[in-house]
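=== RUN LOG ===
request id: a7f3
mode: sequence -> structure
chains: 1
length: 332
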Amino acid sequence: MQVPTFAKEIENATVPVGREATLSCVIYNLGNFKVAWVRVDTQTILTIDDMVITRSQRISVRHMTDASTWQLIIREVQSSDAGLYMCQLNTEPMTSHTAYLSVTVPPDIVDSESSGDVMVTEGQNTTLRCSATGHPLPVITWRREDGRPIQNHAVTVEGSVLHLTRIPRQNIGAYLCIASNGVPPSVSKRFMLRVQFPPSVTATNQLVGARQGDINITLECHCESFPKPVVYWLRHSTGDVVVNGVKHREEKRETNHYKVSMQLVFLHLEREDFMAYQCVCRNTLGIADSVVRLYQIHPVADDGDMNEVYSEADQQDGRGTGKEQLSSTWDG
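=== RESULT ===
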């Protein structure tokens, strides 16, 4: 009687989770001997000849028409299916070949082991953590959502832990933890870093000159603050709040997470509008303000004609005639 022989080694297989895996065992001169597939780590007999022994509905066996190839089929592969499988012949002594089934699993971020959104005070340190599973083990990459450097001019940082030190207000924003392992799709988690600090205010121009009757004259200040501030304008001399109406319009625009541009627009200037105004920025950590003076420019008549008005700088560099005068008025 001829002895059965394996035609070749069984090839290892790598299959994404959820797909179908096939292991092929080619045997010559099988005769009356039987072929069995065995899960090595648990010593579980899966199939014998054309019969499925295991209770798993995902396991089947296929005997190819050439009568020499026996295939173990595992449908809807799970990560727990990874391991060593044996094609075994009931010869004396028993002969067998083995193959390894590797199951690739796309990355998945474990929220329970990862950080959430973070609030810190400017100048403090903090740590963001991102945990991910998958096979192969995922690589974790950090980057900012807006594409700006994270720190030390690095746009991306690798590792499951991101250390941020002496955090400035410029670091406010969304951070992304991206997990990838070559098995699509990659996944990400968004972390919001908020940096709180008391307000600061700067005026675009502290002196603004205009003529009575001018329209749409704008005073402007810029506030930096987090948490987001309440902004408003006061008449500096009286402390009265300037409210929207037929004479004034307040506007504000958020330019990023912590910057606000605030404007006070005079729709039609009247004499009583010329005074000092105070732009105020307030949050839960403090208050800041800046003063802007709106002064009146008085053109001076000469020989019955209205001359062009020059500033002091114009006169000093020779553009003035020497006859013109700059007259300005403000209250407060």
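=== NOTES ===
The longest strand covers residues 187-203.
The first helix runs from residue 312 to 316.
=== END ===
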